[in-house]
Amino acid sequence: NAGVTQTPKFQVLKTGQSMTLQCAQDMNHNSMYWYRQDPGMGLRLIYYSASEGTTDKGEVPNGYNVSRLNKREFSLRLESAAPSQTSVYFCASSGGDSTYSGNTIYFGEGSWLTVV
Amino acid sequence: QKEVEQDPGPLSVPEGAIVSLNCTYSNSAFQYFMWYRQYSRKGPELLMYTYSSGNKEDGRFTAQVDKSSKYISLFIRDSQPSDSATYLCAMSQWTFGNEKLTFGTGTRLTIIP
Fold first, then answer.
1. Distance from C-alpha of B63 to C-alpha of B77, rounded to nearest angstrom
2. Is B61 exposed, middle or buried (0-12, 13-18, 19+ CB in 10 A)?
3. What is the pLDDT of residue B99?
4. CA gap A15, B9 in Å, rounded
5. Within its chain, how far is the Cα of A18 from the centroid?
6. Which residues of A touch B6 (CB under 8 A)?
7. How far apart are CA B87 and CA B79, in angstroms?
8. Cα distance between residue B95 and residue A48, in whole Å
9. At a CB cut-off of 8 Å and minimum separation 6, what does B86 contact?
10. pLDDT per residue over B29-63, tens digit each?
11. Quick one: pLDDT at residue A13?
């Protein structure tokens, strides 16, 4: 049981390049999330998907697009990378069922992205 | 002003000491309160969660919520070097299908052997 798997783990991009971060979960969760983590800013929500076929903006969506490909996979795309997007990106998933247990949000290992 | 405030530390204590980590918040609609532990170069993992006010104990860890003061705490008893990590508080006003969390910035903790 791998949980939440993100690829790539490390990436260096030049300003203006595009790339896609891939995320997959094997826990049959309904909800998936993309966060970024920056020093002094904590974890901030970029986009989330409450269920297959739906996506919504989070706190910091500008410069990103997402695709909920199916129930397992949720990708994050940077169309034209900027140095301000240098960060650590975390994908997460949760059960999203009708009860809240509190222990349903699981994070991946992170993707370290540097834009030069 | 941030919705959730957390002292970033760093905090260094000797092995065996009691550690107290704290967060304050401003949104009175938060109902669920969580503590995540994050080791270096890893993703956060859920440590404790509580609903509404009160205490919750799990082994050496105790989570405390005071909604009247908008203040939450995590206590670690008999601290171990393996407890060295960054601790993130998180909160949500959960509605079905929308479990968005608001995180504190994290406190970096080092337990000195």
1. 12
2. middle
3. 64
4. 33
5. 16
6. 42
7. 14
8. 14
9. B37, B38, B39, B40, B106, B107, B108, B109
10. 888 899 999 999 999 998 988 887 889 999 999 99
11. 97
pLDDT at res. A30: 85
Q: Which residue of B has its CA nearest to A56?
A: B98
- In three state form, how does the secondary structure of A32-56 look? EEEEEEECCCEEEEEEEECCCCCCE
Hunting for tokens 């169309």 — which residue is that? A79
Count of helices and strands (H, E) across chain B: 0, 11
> Per-block average pLDDT, block size 10, for chain A (116 residues)?
89 97 92 92 90 90 96 96 97 71 76 97
Is residue B94 over pLDDT 80?
Answer: no
Q: What is the pLDDT of residue B81?
A: 97
Radius of gyration of chain B (CA): 14
Tell if the CB–CB gap between A30 and B97 is shorter than 8 Å: yes
Residue A38 contacts B, CB cutoff 8 Å: no
- Using a CB-CB distance cutoff of 8 angstroms, which residues of chain B are in contact with residue A107? 43-45
**Which residue of chain A is at minimal alpha-carbon distance from B33?**
A102
A78 with A87: CB under 8 angstroms?
A: no
How far apart CA B19 and CA B61 sit, in angstroms, is: 10
